[in-house]
């Protein structure tokens, strides 16, 4: 979602953003970028020079942009050439996810990207089709246009100023929207409270149902939506980042759920597809291997389907840890080889990790109230060995599982 505080936009603040993306600002932005590599005394002197020669607002903008470009490297490979605001960067789709989503629009013709922000999805769409982005905040449109130019995609994409609900999607080949989930300043997972509202989005879908709606992974969904759309939860780096509702021809499997795990750029995605099913019966014990489904699989509630695919058993009812005597290599599962299973007692655990020389301990928990950081301190770790400690319930008892993360398992 973009930074949509449009009611605060003044002609002066818009002019400052337009200056920031202009050639005139380049030497000042470069100077701000050099500050991060300078000694403290040089930093202070350079900042003072900026304040003498630029307005307070423009000094703030170039220093902020320098910091944001460094932060944005986690989302954009060309971050050093791009333009951001703090909220615009926070809410932008990162390029790996955006590129993955854009594949469904390839060759579609003219596409519309509504509520486009600084251009996370817009940039990816411009790689595969012609696209026009719209945002009601004129500053976001300026930044998105600058990002299209910076990535040499301005010949296939443009960014304009307009309320998303006012744009006629009827003549577009397809459209994408990222409705505001914080219209009152507080995040909401209820689609009827988004902006545009779900009622408005339904009106737009009636006009053109070739659409993708970006939502929070925790969005509250109604059964009619599940029946009409393909719902896809997408994760990257073990974090479920977004839910996309695909409609029309963009939906590969309408009425079904998809959990997609993305790795680094260029890696093939792993998808689990299914419907909500009955939970598997708990085994009540731990076998040689323990498995933790990816957050996208858990958000989509497809862990039962994934477990059935690989012949895994649930350890305890209501706790998403699975087990098996055989090893499974699957990008949608974190795999751990079990070393010890014992009742959860600090004194016993402390003696065991000391005996094993475990100084690096990954601590995970499900279905219990333990604080991992407090537990880490209580165990007083020393040594060069590493392990994973999983604290959970097995057959109703709080249990400690010492395991080794299988190489390649994330």
CA radius of gyration is 25 Å
CATH architecture of the largest domain: 3-Layer(aba) Sandwich
CATH superfamily of the largest domain: Vaccinia Virus protein VP39
**Spans where pLDDT lies below 50 across 5 or more residues:** 1-7
Give the SSE order as H and E letters: HHHHHHEHEHEEHEHEEEEEHHEEEHEHEE
Number of H- or I-type helical stretches? 14
Whole-Å distance between the termini?
28 Å
- CATH fold topology of the largest domain: Rossmann fold
Which geometry do the CA atoms define?
Answer: globular
What is the average of the pLDDT values? 91
Strands of the largest sheet, in order across it?
3-2-1-4-5-7-6-8-9
Number of strands: 16
Helix content: 25-40%
Describe the fold and architecture.
It is a single chain. The protein is of the alpha/beta class. It has three domains: 51 residues, no CATH class; 186 residues, Vaccinia Virus protein VP39 (Rossmann fold, 3-Layer(aba) Sandwich); 117 residues. It contains 14 helices and 16 strands. A nine-stranded mixed β-sheet has the order 3-2-1-4-5-7-6-8-9. Helix 2 crosses helix 4 and helix 6 crosses helix 7. The chain is globular and about 65 Å long. The two termini are 28 Å apart. The N terminus is likely disordered.
């Amino acid at each position: 979602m973009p930074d949509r505080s449009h009611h605060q936009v003044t002609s002066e603040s818009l002019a400052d953003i337009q200056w920031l993306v202009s050639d005139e600002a380049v030497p000042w932005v470069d100077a701000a970028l050099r500050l991060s590599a300078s000694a403290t005394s040089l930093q202070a002197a350079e900042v003072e020079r900026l304040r003498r020669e630029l307005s307070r607002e423009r000094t703030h903008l170039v220093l902020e942009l320098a910091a944001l470009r460094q932060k944005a490297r986690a989302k954009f490979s060309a971050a050093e050439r791009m333009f951001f605001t703090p909220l615009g960067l926070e809410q932008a789709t990162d390029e790996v996810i955006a590129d993955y989503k854009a594949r469904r629009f390839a060759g579609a013709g003219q596409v519309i990207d509504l509520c486009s922000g600084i251009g996370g999805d817009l940039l990816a769409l411009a790689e595969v089709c012609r696209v026009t982005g719209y945002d009601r905040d004129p500053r976001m449109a300026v930044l998105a246009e600058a990002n299209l130019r910076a990535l040499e995609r301005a010949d296939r994409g443009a960014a304009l100023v307009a309320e998303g609900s006012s744009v006629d999607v009827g003549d577009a080949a397809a459209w994408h929207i990222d409705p505001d989930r914080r219209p009152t300043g507080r995040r909401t997972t209820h689609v009827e409270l988004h902006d545009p509202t779900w009622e408005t989005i339904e009106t737009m879908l009636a006009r053109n149902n070739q659409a993708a709606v970006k939502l929070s992974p925790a969005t509250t969904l109604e059964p009619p939506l599940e029946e009409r759309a393909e719902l896809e939860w997408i994760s990257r780096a073990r974090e479920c980042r977004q839910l996309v509702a695909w409609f029309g021809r963009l939906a590969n499997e309408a009425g079904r759920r998809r959990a997609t795990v993305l790795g680094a750029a260029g890696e093939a995605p792993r998808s689990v597809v299914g419907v909500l099913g009955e939970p598997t019966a708990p085994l009540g014990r731990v076998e040689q291997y323990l498995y933790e489904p990816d957050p996208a699989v858990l958000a989509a509630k497809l862990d039962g389907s994934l477990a059935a695919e690989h012949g895994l058993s649930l350890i305890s009812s209501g706790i998403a840890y699975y087990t098996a005597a055989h090893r499974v290599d699957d990008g949608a599962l974190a795999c751990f080889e079990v070393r010890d299973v014992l009742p959860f007692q600090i004194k016993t655990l402390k003696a065991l990790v000391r005996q094993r020389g475990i100084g690096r301990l990954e601590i995970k928990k499900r279905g219990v109230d333990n604080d991992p950081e407090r537990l880490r301190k209580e165990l007083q770790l020393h040594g060069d060995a590493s392990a994973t400690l999983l604290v959970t319930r097995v057959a109703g008892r709080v249990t400690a599982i010492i395991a080794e993360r299988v190489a390649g398992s994330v």
